[in-house]
User: Which sequence fits this backbone?
């Protein structure tokens, strides 16, 4: 069977898609490889959120031209949002591409790939072959979400669950999708176009997936959705096909501030879902979710978080701007005051440093959105100071063809101003992050150990990117196809260093902590475990601490 190299660009949703695709292909007999130069099939799972993300893929595709000239049998595929957005244009611009598959069509990838591989084979054999493997742009927004059509659910359901062996540390933490797509239509954003309408997965499927991951040894699950807190499954509306409950289209709801408003047998709300996973999967030590939308975040969810010890005290709630005028042009549906009120409410429920459980927040901000004045920007600085995120992703506005902002709002903030605001805001956030770090010194936190620290990886001639491989690791039938480098890399030639080995982990508030293990063997034994670490100093984006006796 052909070997496949799969590289992922962009968000966590893409990482999960790649993992599921890799798992599916491995089940079908393909071999996954980390060596792009030797692979029979090269797949890029792409992102369209900002132009820069697309540029990276264009240049990678450009580089592949030479490789393909050398090896004409090689198959090149573009998956994900760029395939969906650019459609046939992408293939025209880059003839090196043999197949494309949008994020809503990934269930069809094995067939597309099979076709493409066969076509290539017949071309090589000198036969005529005009088969096109392009199919990836049928919009699920316009398509009926009728149950029978939603085969995409099968991709999530086909996930491989194999027991994690000692070296499979990267697999101790897993993503589980709860919602696909987005109905928000923020004016700058391509996601509602590339990923289609919001669809919620049946709670039974989600809980079972969490259970099976926990049975396989996963200790931390991150639930994924573009707007996770909008999760809502109406059981009465569920359709069963072939004994399988189908996902359903999301409905927005207003003014939900108490759990009772939705509790009942016919509806599973996000609060109900969190509660159910927490109760039904006790082996799961950490449950988290991203990304939260700042509106319609009911007290019901905050109550469940407060009362469930294994749900992390961490929220990623993008504000995008600290100006009401800009928020309105972005179609975000809330004001700065409402956003800050939400953060206050979340803190009232969840910020409990006295019991070692402070609430940690992170955010996203776009600077240089059309019409953003100096005063608007000052509002954003003020918002960061009030929000006190532990970290914040800051982006320069990137006009995306097809979005409302691209069509109707001229991109009038000069690039130099965008850059200046971006750099300034990064420094504002760095100071806030540093202050939050200082507040942690002297505290002891349970830390989930993820692997060797960047410093340690560097000392071993590995890059930080090696710690989280871009080719997603999958374990099939107990055999690691690609596992966590760093530790395993030492099995292939590195002589263990005597003395301490620095490892990295995260608190349940998502703070990064480095500390020393006494030896390689000790480091290996800690990876994937949750251990108590006392914070001794804070610098930059991370904390340094000391391991206490577990
Ligand atoms: N330009 C810049 N940033 C964007 N984001 C989404 N679309 C754009 C765009 N056109 C950012 C938002 C979002 C994050 C995933 O990416 O901050 O929360
Ligand atoms: Fe894009 Fe807005 Fe949906 Fe987030 S909520 S994916 S920014 S449209």
Assistant:
């Amino acid at each position: 069977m052909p070997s496949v190299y799969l590289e992922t660009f962009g968000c966590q949703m893409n990482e999960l898609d790649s993992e599921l695709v890799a798992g599916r292909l491995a089940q079908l007999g393909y071999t996954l490889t980390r060596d792009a130069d030797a692979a029979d099939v090269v797949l890029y799972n792409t992102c369209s959120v900002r132009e820069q993300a697309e540029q990276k893929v264009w240049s990678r595709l450009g580089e592949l031209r030479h490789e393909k000239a050398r090896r004409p049998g090689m198959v090149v595929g573009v998956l994900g949002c760029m395939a969906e957005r650019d459609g046939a244009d992408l293939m025209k611009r880059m003839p090196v591409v043999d197949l494309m598959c949008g994020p809503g069509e990934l269930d069809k990838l094995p067939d597309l790939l099979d076709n493409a591989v066969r076509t290539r084979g017949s071309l090589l054999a000198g036969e005529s072959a005009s088969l096109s493997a392009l199919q990836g742009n049928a919009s699920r927004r316009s398509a009926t979400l009728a149950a029978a059509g939603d085969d995409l659910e099968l991709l999530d359901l086909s996930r491989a669950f194999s027991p994690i062996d000692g070296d499979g540390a990267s697999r101790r933490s897993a993503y589980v999708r709860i919602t696909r797509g987005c109905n928000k239509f923020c004016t700058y954003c391509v996601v509602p176009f590339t990923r289609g309408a919001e669809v919620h997965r049946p709670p039974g499927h989600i809980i079972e997936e969490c259970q099976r991951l926990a049975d396989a040894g996963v200790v931390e699950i991150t639930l994924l959705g573009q707007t996770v807190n909008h999760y809502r499954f109406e059981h009465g509306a569920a359709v069963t096909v072939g004994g399988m409950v189908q996902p359903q289209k999301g409905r927005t709801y207003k003014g939900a501030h108490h759990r009772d408003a939705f509790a009942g047998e016919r509806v599973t709300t996000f609060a109900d879902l969190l509660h159910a996973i927490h109760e039904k999967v006790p082996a799961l030590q950490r449950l988290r979710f991203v990304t939260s939308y700042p509106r319609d975040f009911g007290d019901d969810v905050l109550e469940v978080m407060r009362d469930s010890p294994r749900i992390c005290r961490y929220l990623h709630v993008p504000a995008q701007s600290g100006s009401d005028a800009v928020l309105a042009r972005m179609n975000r549906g809330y004001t700065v005051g409402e956003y800050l009120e939400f953060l206050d409410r979340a803190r009232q429920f969840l910020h409990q440093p006295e019991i070692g459980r402070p609430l940690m927040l992170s955010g996203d901000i776009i600077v240089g959105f059309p019409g953003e004045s100096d005063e608007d920007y000052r509002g954003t600085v003020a918002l960061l100071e009030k929000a006190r995120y532990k970290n914040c992703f800051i982006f320069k506005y990137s006009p995306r063809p097809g979005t409302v902002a691209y069509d109707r709002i001229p991109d009038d903030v000069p690039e130099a101003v965008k850059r200046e605001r971006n750099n300034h805001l990064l420094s504002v956030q760095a100071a806030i992050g540093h202050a939050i770090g200082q507040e942690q010194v002297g505290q002891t936190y349970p830390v989930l150990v993820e692997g060797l620290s960047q410093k340690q990886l560097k000392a071993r001639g590995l890059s930080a990117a090696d710690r989280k491989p871009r080719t997603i690791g999958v374990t099939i039938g107990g055999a690691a196809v690609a596992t966590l480098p760093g530790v395993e890399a030492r099995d292939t030639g590195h002589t263990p260093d005597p003395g301490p080995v620095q490892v990295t982990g995260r608190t349940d508030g998502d703070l990064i902590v480095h500390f020393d293990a006494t030896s390689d063997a000790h480091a290996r034994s800690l990876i994937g475990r949750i251990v108590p670490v006392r914070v001794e100093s804070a610098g930059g984006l991370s904390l340094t601490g000391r391991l206490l006796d577990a």
Residues 49-50, 188-189, 318, 320, 364, 366, 395, 397-398, 400 surround 5'-deoxyadenosine (ligand 1) (CB under 6 Å). Residues 122-149, 252-263, 467-493 have pLDDT under 50 and may be disordered. The longest helix spans residues 415-440. The CA atoms of residues 84 and 137 lie 5 Å apart.
